[in-house]
Amino acid sequence: MSRTFVGMPPFPTAARxxxxxxxxxxxxxxxxxxxxxxxxxxxxxxxDWEELRLAGAAVKERALRSLDTHLVQLEASLTAAGAxxxxxxxxxxxxxxxxxxxRSHGVEEVVKVKSMATAEIDLNTALAAEGIAAWxxxxxxxxxxxxxxxxxxxxxxAIHRNRAEVREIFRDHMGEAGRPAPEGLTDVPAELAxxxxxxxxxxFLRAKVGVSGANFAVAETGxxxxxxSEGNGRMCLTLPEVLVSVVGIEKVVPTWAELDPLLxxxxxxxxxxxxxxxxxxxxxxxxxxxxQEVHVVLLDNGRTNALADEVGRQALRCIRCSACLNVCxxxxxxxxxxxxxxxxGPIGAILNPLMKGTxxxxxxxxxxxxxxxxxxxxxxxxxxxxxxxxxxxxxxxLVHLRSKVVDGHRGDRVPKAxxxxxxxxxxxxxxxxxxxxxxxxSGLSGKALARLSRTSLPGGRxxxxxxxxxxxxxxxxxxxxxxPAESFRAWWQRTNGGRTDSGHTPTGRVDD
Length: 512
Prior knowledge:
This is Lactate utilization protein B. It comes from Nocardioides kribbensis. Residues 315-392 form the 4Fe-4S ferredoxin-type domain. Residues 457-482 are annotated as: Disordered. Helix content is 49%, strand content 9%. By secondary structure, it is of the alpha/beta class. The chain is elongated and about 95 Å long.
């Protein structure tokens, strides 16, 4: 059975381990830097790029605001074109539908187009439990599958691997899944791609059932759209007798004309190309051309939860370009596996909590802790919003979700250390006399630290060093200035005789 993200630790734990992998950090820095440069070049060619972003955001927003109406229209259009439409509330229902279709045709294998939706529901594992092998045909997905690995990027799932590692994976494991790698295979990219082409060709030619996702679904015409760069998608969408497409309900676009800005935004933002080499569109069944049995599974799996969140629903505008991953300083240093989901990076840090829920209302247990950690997996630098082709304000949603995580844990039987610290601060700051006691205590500690400290900040001010207990998490990577030996209140008493400009002596009120 292939690996899954189930049981992954919270982001801080996973990220700490990833930061220690120097090869991983080198691979990520090289790959994301290359993609960033390509994107910047082709975006700079478009004079009205910001207007194009606004247009793309408007199309997706209009679709989401009347999603129920557009979905009904999409179902009607698909049915009229000969497709069979299924509705899936969650991953289990979606997997069961695909497995049933495959079983009804007596197949033992299916070929797949790269699809985030099928990865989200872990379709490959579900089919394997039914005795059906699901073969990935995208080059990067093939690398991940043969290496019994996990995807770490939305667009380039094997971004954490370099070409020498890919060669070893092909040489050691390709023969276990079909045609083996050629003798003497090197790590030259063209040779690696050639080995994958030969390996996959026999699967394309014998497969009776293909499985895909969709980048867009046009409600007006019942058209599904897949964009890709390798041609494997075109093979999966045209050669099998049966095609099953698993489509998230947020992929709906109201009209054919509204594809225009999206198809101009997506390739530039994702692969740094002016247009995708392959853009495949199909509407149901065409007699004598392509699959003669077409199924479309409309997947919810938490999307209506996200839609109900007035701040977070903008995340459903996402067109899966991965531009936010490529500019994120956190992702570049920790990689995608640290996020514990097929949706990594900034967009994953908001999509997962929105769809799964946070706090006690979330998945609970270790899975809940992992999801709750994601809104904090960001420096809030804002680079993700600047590059998002549909203008998702990811930092805004991250802050919103952080508040939901905190609110969700207010009733915990054992409060978090942060909550205890905030309660202690509130106790001190709501009474001037208590605040005065705290200031005097901090002044004494400041004098002691000034005598004992061997380090200082610019200006000669002493640092507090490494704090014990929960404070160690903060001071382990930051300088904490020692409290001043004399508080402002004590200084005022000493220099002004305890009197304010109005001539009154301060009372016990905080606002004096």
